[in-house]
UniProtKB/TrEMBL annotation:
It comes from Mesorhizobium salmacidum. Residues 292-539 form the Xaa-Pro dipeptidyl-peptidase C-terminal domain. It holds the Pfam family PepX_C. Keywords: Hydrolase. One of its GO terms (molecular function) is hydrolase activity. This is CocE/NonD family hydrolase. InterPro entries: AB_hydrolase_fold, CocE/Ser_esterase, Galactose-bd-like_sf, Xaa-Pro-like_dom, Xaa-Pro_dipept_C, Xaa-Pro_dipeptidyl-ppase/CocE.
Length: 661
């Protein structure tokens, strides 16, 4: 990445600009703007997050926000209520209070003498979600958003449920937020006489969100609120949607470009869950230059050509050897002026014909261990590996060797007639690229709780032995399969640890199955070109402890229990400006027996540390989840230390009834 230090306008920074909400709650904002903004007002770019501007998102903030400010914007990075250096309490993700606070910040910003009255909102992940949801509320000053790695559907395409199946990321993310939100404000910002009271009040009101999320196992009003797919027409601001093929939120770009009536464009690269000017696998792109084109047009009225850009630009990844990490993906950029594209034709591949005999599948509960993380973000061993171990536990339908390459661009779908021997069963479908030597690379996958085959809101139990139809939509993808390779469709009844298992082992009998594959004419070269990545001067730190990620699968040959252990040490660094030292370590353990779905268990342990000179705090959080046939059984614990003294402890224990359909 090229570091830019000279900008058209000189930048000044305000590390703690207070924004007082109508109820008196003070939010803390870090603001960068041109030095002369009072004399020459500028638009505002807002990022509204719970992830701590002081030590959480500071790496990416340093690259991004001074860059925007130097090009004539006031970049406002707000700690959400109840997090970081802001006052108040947070009770859930995307609450009405959170969204209203964002609307109030937008109104406040638009009224400042240094603002020209126009506001844009941006963010990745949580910030990508809430900028779309805020746009649907239509605050008058909000003219444009840039949403990265986000969703339009909080139920069906977030970290909670997928295809009606419970994602284990539901538990993982609740554990993460329990740890993230347990940290105190910085005494240098909140004040030596106030930070501790704010911290203890935050801890006393801390929520462990897992029981709440588990209590909404169907698509009810809880999930509909904030899901902009319920009414795409509510979004009037111009939307630039960006995502990555190695991220869990790869479907949103197509959904937005296909459905929003406001101006909208989409870009999908080969990336994990990161901003694309520093993301991997490479190639990264000049995201900040692309963002400026968007902001300059919609917030300043400049003619930058963004309206004429193709609706959908995507990176078609070439076939590679399976690996848990790829620093780079070879391929090429394609461009579709309109999306959905008339240049993409759907080819139907009959996997099981009515005249052929049925195929059965009853996978061990350990099927899925080659699937990787739902949304990788550590630049470590989190990608799907060689699929052959999972293929061996699935019913596989191999196609003839390709005589010429094909490009799959879009969402494959499987239509299937099947019968189950249990009233509830899950199905997982993987589309793989099989190399001549048998290596199997994951192209895309989809999962479905078969009781949700007709509706996520009103599921219907299966009648054992009765044949029903189901449609499994796989994730969006853009992938070139070379000549000499084969397509494989692998069907399983388990996908651990991506989804929580059914209460009983299930056997499916497949009587008919057809795969629909969206094929595009081969691109001969790049159809879209992006500038090389640029950024402002990076965060200046001293490394105290280097980061490290590890992932191990162990099988106990005596008990049969299989354990996946993940340790992500995010390291510890000292900020060379304000001196704050921060560090964190996350540990996950997932265990299951191949023959017993009720043996499934997840455990997490997070450690967070903050220190400066003689002051130090530490929080430890633990969480556990398991289930029996009727209930999910969850527990968690927080311990908070000032120095070596335990100043707060709290336990959470709850049973949540398990929906059997």
């Amino acid at each position: 990445m090229k570091t830019i230090t000279e900008f058209p306008r000189k930048v000044v920074e305000f590390p703690d600009m207070g924004i007082v909400m109508p109820d008196g709650c003070r939010l803390s904002a870090r603001v960068w703007m041109p030095e002369d903004a009072d004399d020459d007002p500028v638009p505002v770019i807002l990022e509204h997050l719970p992830y701590r501007k002081r030590d959480g998102t500071i790496f990416r903030d340093q690259l991004t926000h001074p860059y925007f400010a130097g090009h004539g914007y006031a970049s406002v990075r707000v700690d959400m209520r109840g997090n970081g250096d802001s006052e108040g309490l947070m009770d859930d993700e995307y609450s009405e209070q959170e969204l209203q606070d964002a609307c109030d910040v937008i109104a406040w910003a638009a009224a400042q003498p240094w603002c020209n009255g126009n506001v844009g909102m941006m963010g990745i992940s949580w910030g990508g979600f809430n900028c779309l949801q805020v746009a649907a509320k239509q605050p008058p000053a909000l003219k444009a958003v840039i949403s990265l790695c986000s969703t339009v559907d909080r139920y069906a395409d977030d970290i909670h449920y997928k295809g009606g199946c419970l994602l284990l990321e539901n538990f993982g993310w609740a554990s993460t937020m329990l740890s993230y939100s347990s940290r105190p404000p910085d005494p240098l910002i909140a004040g030596d006489d106030k930070w501790r009271d704010l911290w203890l009040k935050r801890l006393e009101n801390q929520s462990f969100l897992l029981p709440l999320w588990l209590s909404h196992q169907h698509r009810d009003a809880y999930w509909k609120r904030g899901s902009i797919c319920e009414d795409f027409s509510a979004v009037h601001a111009a939307v630039l949607s960006i995502g990555g093929w190695h991220d869990g939120y790869r479907n949103t770009i197509s959904h937005l470009v296909s459905n929003i009536e406001a101006p909208v464009k989409g870009i999908v690269g080969p990336w994990i869950h990161k901003y694309p000017h520093y993301a991997e696998p490479k190639p990264a792109i000049g995201f900040l230059q692309e963002a400026l084109r968007w902001w300059d047009h919609w917030l300043k009225g400049a003619e930058t050509g963004v309206e004429a850009d193709p609706d959908y630009r995507a990176y078609v990844m070439d076939s590679v050897r399976p690996a848990r990490w790829h620093p780079e993906r070879p391929g090429r950029w394609i461009a579709e002026q309109e999306w959905p594209s008339s240049s993409i034709a759907v080819e139907a591949i009959e996997l099981i014909s009515p005249d052929a005999g049925p195929s059965t599948v009853a996978s061990p509960q350990t099927c899925g261990l080659a699937g990787g993380e739902y949304f990788p973000f550590t630049f470590g061993p989190e990608l799907p590996g060689d699929q052959r171990p999972d293929d061996g536990l699935s019913a596989c339908f191999d196609q003839p060797e390709l005589t010429k390459p094909i490009e799959i661009v879009g969402a494959p779908e499987l239509e299937v007639l099947l019968a189950s021997d249990r009233p509830q069963a899950n199905i997982a479908v993987r589309l793989c690229d099989v190399h001549p030597d048998g290596a199997s690379e994951l192209i895309s996958y989809g999962v479905l709780n078969l009781t949700h085959r007709n509706s996520h809101e009103f599921p219907e139990a299966l009648v054992p032995g009765e044949t029903v139809s189901a449609r499994v939509v796989l994730d969006q993808c853009a992938y070139r399969v070379p000549a000499g390779h084969r397509l494989r469709v692998a069907v399983s009844t388990a996908y651990w640890p991506m989804i929580w298992p059914s209460p009983e082992p299930a056997r499916l009998t497949l009587s008919e199955a057809t795969l629909s594959v969206p094929l595009r004419l081969l691109a001969t070269g790049d159809e879209a070109v992006f500038a090389e990545p640029e950024g402002a001067a990076p965060w200046a730190t001293e490394t105290i402890r280097p980061a490290n990620s590890e992932r191990h699968v162990d099988r106990d040959e005596k008990t049969g229990i299989v354990t996946l252990s993940i340790a992500d040490d995010f390291g510890e660094v000292r900020d060379l400006d304000h001196g704050l030292v921060n560090g964190s370590i996350a540990r996950e353990t997932w265990t299951i027996h191949p023959d017993d779905p009720l043996s499934a268990s997840g455990k997490t342990h997070w450690t967070q540390t903050l220190s400066r000179n003689g002051w130090s705090v530490r929080t430890e959080t633990w969480a556990q989840m398991r289930s029996d046939a009727q209930n999910f059984i969850v527990s968690a614990r927080i311990e908070a230390y000032e120095g070596e003294n335990l100043v707060f402890e709290r336990d959470f224990d709850e049973k949540v009834p398990r929906a059997l359909v």
